[in-house]
Design goal:
This protein has 472 residues and is an alpha/beta fold. The protein is built from 19 helices and 16 strands. Bound molecules: adenosine-5'-triphosphate and magnesium ion (MG).
Length: 472
């Protein structure tokens, strides 16, 4: 990644000093901006990004170098400041560092000293930028052979990926959480003619609604509070490549309208801008929401849905993939054995039964996590049921309404079940302290004890000596 570096800002009221700094730095290929005062420097910082700022401690006229430093460091905390002082005394050095400088140079200094300080900043800047871009913008897409499964539907899915990938068709991926939507999107890019170019993934649910538009399409400087510089949109970064809009069901309606326009011909404007820009991008979108329901509730534009839905992928839930559960387990076992240096050979018959009979609401992701945990816990050569999560408990915890209604039970039994669950959960939340639990449930300690006895709930509290008169 070889972007040009931003310029170095030099602040000095002495012309000769500015010129000598310039000749040293320009000779090494740095771009420079020279200003005479703190006020001018603040103006320049508002407008442009700088690699670093070099300021003299004494600036004729208005603000001193220290005052400038204190102000500017607070406002641009990511820009390094280097202070030049007329003579080095420990006191002045401390002042400079306290005001926010990363380093200081005492006059007279050798050109190498200056170049060394600046190249450190340049290196830091490069690392920061490479890092940010590796992390955030260009993700390594997945390969098709990472999509494991022998179920007929999985064969069909891989076949469809192979035939759709080389086209520029827009793709919509619908499926429950953890079914591999992201894997499919990545494989589509990897097998396309766009694979040499960027693959940009944006999680629409993870970015605050008011920032998503500027993230996608960029903004002009000053278009909203906080827009201090112009920012390119991710669609521009994706030019020639693919953009994957994950969790598209969470996108706001106004932004859906802008996306619709973008999909028609690749045109858009930056937030606060007037120019119509144009890019060549392939779009893949995914959601685990019920999109049809979202349309009927007016949360998702029907016209956008049709635009996106040129080719639709529906990775099936794991519970419908039969023996693929075991095929995946074997793969995950191999992977985690290798990464954790363990030697778990296989799955015991009882554990296999347990895995096959569970309904896997979190799909492949949940299975992967369960196997990772089992590999950690397992002490025998095969995974035993005890190393797997307690799926019944997990199923109950997962229910948002908190209660599973057992079939063919009387109301009395169901009510007792419910009461037991409420008391157990409240006890747990209060670390089995009877008084606090009773207080939270607005009953007396005595009444709570009575109910616990009736419901066969063991009292795990270390009974503290109860103060007289506390029973309600
Ligand atoms: N067929 C598969 N073979 C191997 N690993 C898979 C498969 N499907 C999913 N995975 C793995 O399961 C995890 C979840 O997959 P992924 O992130 O693609 O799911 P998702 O559908 O995007 O989920 P969500 O809706 O929660 O974002 C990942 O670790 C992925 O590598
Ligand atoms: Mg996903």
């Amino acid at each position: 990644m070889n972007w040009p570096l931003p310029p170095v800002l030099v602040v000095d009221d002495e012309k000769n000093m500015r010129l000598s700094l310039k000749s040293i730095l320009a000779g090494e290929g740095y771009d420079l901006r020279l200003v005479e005062s703190a006020e001018e420097a603040l103006g320049a910082l508002e407008k442009e990004e700088f690699l670093m700022v070099i300021t003299d401690a004494r600036l004729g006229g208005g603000m001193s170098g220290y005052q400038f430093l204190a102000l500017a460091c607070k406002k641009w905390p990511n820009t390094p400041f280097l202070m030049i002082t007329a003579y080095a005394t420990p006191k002045l050095a401390v002042e400079a560092i306290k005001a926010g400088a990363i380093d200081y140079l005492a006059k007279p200094f050798a050109p190498e000293e200056l170049l060394h300080a600046v190249s450190r900043c340049a290196e830091f800047h490069r690392l920061k930028r490479d890092n940010a871009s590796l992390r955030a913008s260009v993700v390594e897409p997945y390969q098709i052979d990472q999509i494991i499964g022998q179920a007929p539907k999985m064969h069909e899915l891989r076949q469809l990926i192979r035939s759709v990938a080389p086209t520029d068709a827009t793709v919509l991926i619908l499926g429950e959480s953890g079914t591999g939507k992201e894997l499919i999107a990545g494989a589509l890019h990897s097998l396309s003619q766009r694979r040499q170019n960027n693959y940009i993934r944006i999680n629409c649910a993870a970015i605050p609604e008011n920032l998503l538009e500027s993230e996608l399409f960029g903004h002009e400087k000053g278009s909203f509070t906080g827009a201090v510089k112009q920012k390119l949109g991710r669609v521009e970064e994706a030019h020639g490549g693919t953009i994957f809009l994950d969790e598209i069901g969470d996108m706001s309606r106004p932004l859906q309208a802008k996306l619709l326009r973008f999909l028609e011909d690749g045109s858009f404007t930056r937030v606060g801008g007037n120019d119509e820009l144009h890019v060549d991008v392939r779009l893949i979108a995914a959601t685990n929401r019920d999109i049809i329901q979202a349309i009927s509730q007016n949360n998702f534009r029907e016209d956008l849905f049709h635009r996106l839905n040129v080719v639709q992928f529906r990775p099936p839930p794991l519970r419908e993939r039969g023996n693929d559960i075991i095929v995946l387990v074997e793969n995950f076992l191999q992977h985690f054995n290798a990464t954790m240096n363990k030697h778990v050979r296989g799955v015991s018959a009882a554990a296999r039964q347990k895995l096959l009979s569970y309904h896997w609401p979190g799909n492949v992701r949940e299975l992967r996590n369960a196997i990772e945990r089992a590999v950690i816990l397992e002490t025998t050569p095969e995974i035993q049921p005890a190393s797997l999560p307690d799926f019944q408990l997990e199923g109950r915890l997962r229910k948002s309404d908190g209660f599973v209604i057992a079939a063919n039970e009387s109301l009395d039994v169901l009510m007792a079940d419910f009461e037991r669950q409420v008391i157990n959960t409240t006890l747990e939340n209060n670390r089995f302290n009877i008084s606090k639990t009773a207080e939270q449930l607005k009953i007396s300690r005595h009444a709570l004890r009575y109910r616990m006895q009736r419901l066969n709930i063991t009292d795990a509290e270390e009974e503290p000596p109860s103060a007289p008169g506390r029973e309600g």
